[in-house]
Write a structure and sequence with these properties.
Length: about 200
């Protein structure tokens, strides 16, 4: 019994299916070749892990990213922030580290600078920066260059232990480093780290 010749529509259907399988295979190959963020493992070791262990000081941050100290006279107390550009293979990251101040230390700084709660923030001089080099860091934020893909961060730090849905985007949580990664879509918006004890269950 002779077989009927394939119609043109059948050939087109086979071609479309083959093209789909080819595209799917190419996507799988690309997804398995995600390039990690080159600098993150080093920054994890010199910034995130010491902060998670509550032993990160301003001096260590300055050694990696020299910058300026800023005094914020907020209504809920004075804050001192170290701001710097952190150079990486991806481009410059914006770094901001908040120092751990007591209420008395904050009040003393405000008085010395002639500031009151609610005034505009002010840059502190290099003399004060040197005097505060051994102050502990309370929190650390890293803002990546635009367009950093979330899958590249996961390839550098591993999958998060917890994923939270936010009003805008998602949060990936890495409690072992006191780290929360804020995502918008599939892009990384911000890395925010605190001492690991902040993630400990409350009694």
């Amino acid at each position: 019994m002779t077989r009927a010749p394939l119609k043109m529509q059948h050939w087109l259907l086979f071609g479309a299916v083959a093209a789909l399988f080819f595209a799917w295979g190419a996507w799988l190959m690309r997804s398995g070749e995600v390039t990690p963020v080159a600098d993150l493992p080093r920054w994890r070791d010199v910034l995130l892990q010491p902060l998670a262990d509550d032993r990160l000081a301003l001096r260590q941050v300055q050694a990696l990213a020299p910058g300026e100290l800023w005094l914020q006279p907020r209504l809920d107390g004075a804050r001192v922030l170290h701001r710097a550009e952190l150079a990486g293979a991806e481009g410059s990251w914006a770094l901001e580290a908040e120092l751990a101040l007591s209420e008395a230390q904050g009040d003393s700084l405000l008085a010395a600078q002639g500031l009151r709660a609610g005034d505009a923030e002010r840059a502190l001089g290099q003399t004060l920066t040197g005097q505060m080099a051994d102050f502990a860091v309370r929190s650390l934020s890293l803002k990546p260059p635009p367009g950093l893909a979330a899958e590249r961060l996961a390839a550098s730090l591993g999958q998060p232990r917890l994923t939270l849905e936010l009003a805008e985007g998602q949060a990936w949580v890495y409690p072992q480093w006191g780290l929360t990664v804020h995502l918008r879509g599939d892009k990384v918006e911000l890395l925010h780290a605190v001492p690991g004890r902040e993630f400990a269950p409350r009694p």
